[in-house]
Amino acid sequence: MSSGAPTPKVPNPVRQFIDDETGTSNVRLLRSFRAQLTALYLAFFSLLFVLFSIFLYGELSRSLTARLDNTLASEADTAAVLFPDELQEMHGDAPAAAREVVMELKVHGDFVTIREGSHVLAASPNFAPDPRDRSAARTVQAAGRTYHIAVSAPLDSIHAELAVVRRAIFIALPLILALAGLGGYVLATRGLRPLGWMADQARRITGSNLDTRIQIDNAAEELSVLVTSFNELLARLDQSFDTMRRFVADASHELRTPIAVIRGEADVALSQERSPAEYRESLAVVLDEARRLSRLVDDLLNLARADAGHVTLQTQDFYLNELLAECCRSVQGLAITRGLALECLPGDDLQFTGDEQLLRRLVINLLDNAIRYTPSGGKVSATLQTGATSVQLRVSDTGIGIAPADAARVFERFYRAGEARSRQDGGFGLGLAIVRWVAESHRGAVECTSTSGHGSTFTVTLPK
Ligand code: ADP
Question: Shortest CA distance to 40 belongs to which of 161, 201, 184?
Fold first, then answer.
């Protein structure tokens, strides 16, 4: 098969249900569900009806046969009582006595035979014995002789009654099945109706009204579970969409400022002839903003990749204490410029497995913040502590601190505590979001304790 050949479309009812925009497939699927439910209901009901009919027919047949047997037995008993009396009355004339008994029992319509040995003394007229007949036999001793009395009846009457029942069943069967099918169809339609409503409401939900929730009044328990799960899914989607929207809006907002500065600076520089010193000054501003811009774009890209799950940690073994010492060295110049004391306590050799680049980023972000938000004369310290199962990296400062209301939110993207203050310092509000992401991607966590005006401590806990 050529690789370019179009893949045949395999009809999938569930996909159709979700994909179809016109909604006709939903209806078709519901109908087929309805048909399936009706067919199942009908098949089950037919089976029940057939089994019940077989049981009823069998029971009726057994009870009719038992009733006939009882009748024959009681007639045979009557004959056995009558015969000796008649024999006495007839002065021992057995054939005459037998005839008299047969005559008396004739009213019942059954066949009576009275024999002495193999000799038939009397028998009902038109008697044609059939091995399938039901019969009852009695042996009578009278005047020193032995007589055999047999009363029998054909099964025809029972067969006739059973035939009536059979006919009734065959006439009733299609009628009952038709009614059952109709009932099943109505029940299935009623049962599936809320699903149709759900589908209708779901179809009306788009990216712009994700806050809508599906509502089904008086829904059955199973359906409420479905509705609740669906609504929870919508809530999660709504939240993700909201975060995404906010992220895009904040990112565009942040991008606008440096771009505006670059444009403004270029406009001013080009508006008239300038001295080389003025051009250099303008270019320095442009370069500074361009650096900020590229830092922002890098941060955004990192976070976007992290969101998309595209970042794979480049894990390797390295010494975490060395990493901390290197980071401290790289910000030492900045700390001195700001008039701060930087204390670095990396501790003993501590081998660690993780993404060195990302962890370096984490430490630099924390140190950078500590230096930026600590006024001149303050102190910034970085320590590394090893526990039994985890490592704690702590960056403290004696800076401006964070108000309790802000402390909970500083790890959010683009969140700045004291908007004007931070903006002036040049932060985008992404540094701590990246810190949290790096910590969490190493199965660790970060927390912040701070007292407004007295400094902050950021503690990153990483499993060993
Ligand atoms: P930014 O780039 O604005 O510094 P961050 O995500 O690194 O963004 O920090 C978010 C906010 O948290 C900052 O705007 C600042 O208000 C506050 N913050 C972070 N670190 C400190 C600190 N060491 N001392 C005081 N405030 C801090």
Answer: 184
Give Cα separations from 417 to 402, 425, 429 (angstroms). Answer: 7, 12, 9
Q: Is 135 in the pocket of ligand 1 (CB under 6 A)?
A: no
The one-letter code for the residue type at 426 is G
The pLDDT value given to residue 267: 93
Query: Which atom of ligand 1 is nearest to 430's Cα?
Result: 6
User: What residues does each domain of the chain span?
Assistant: 11-204, 221-304, 312-463
CATH of 312-463, one of 3.60.110.10, 3.60.130.10, 3.30.565.10, 3.40.190.10: 3.30.565.10
- Is 72 touching ligand 1 by the criterion CB < 6 Å? no
pLDDT confidence of residue 4: 41
The two tokens of residue 80 are 């056995």
- Half-sphere CA count of 76, side-chain side, radius 13 A: 21
- 152 close to ligand 1 (CB < 6 Angstrom): no
- Å from CA of 422 to ligand 1 middle: 7
Which CATH code of 1.20.120.350, 1.10.630.10, 3.40.47.10, 1.10.287.130 fits the domain covering 221-304? Answer: 1.10.287.130
Alpha-carbon span 359 to 370, nearest angstrom:
17
Q: What is the largest CA-CA distance in the chain?
A: 167
Q: Within a 10 A sphere around the Cβ of 212, how many other Cβ atoms?
A: 15
> What is the model's pTM?
0.58
Nearest CA to ligand 1 atom 2: 427
CATH class of 11-204: alpha beta
Tell me which residue has its CA closest to atom 13 in ligand 1.
Answer: 416
Unique residue bearing structure tokens 């985008």: 428
Query: Ligand 1 centroid to 244 CA: how many Å?
Result: 22
- DSSP sequence for 284-350: HHHHHHHHHHHHHHHHHHHHHHHHHT-----EEEEEHHHHHHHHHHHHHHHHHHTT-EEEEE--S--
Residue nearest to atom 12 of ligand 1 (CA): 410
Cα(417) to ligand 1 centroid in Å equals: 7
Q: Which of 254, 411, 432 to mutate to test the pocket of ligand 1 (most atoms within 8 A of CB)?
A: 432
The answer, yes or no, to whether residue 326 has pLDDT greater than 50, is yes
Atom of ligand 1 nearest to the CA of 455: 24
Is it the case that residue 403 has pLDDT exceeding 70?
yes
Task: Give pLDDT tens digits for 153-192.
Answer: 888 889 999 999 999 999 988 898 899 889 888 988 888 8
Q: Is the CB of 84 under 6 A from ligand 1?
A: no
| Residue pLDDT, tens place only, 217-249 | 877 788 889 999 999 999 999 988 888 888 888
Query: From the CA of 150, how far away is ligand 1's center (Å)?
Result: 115
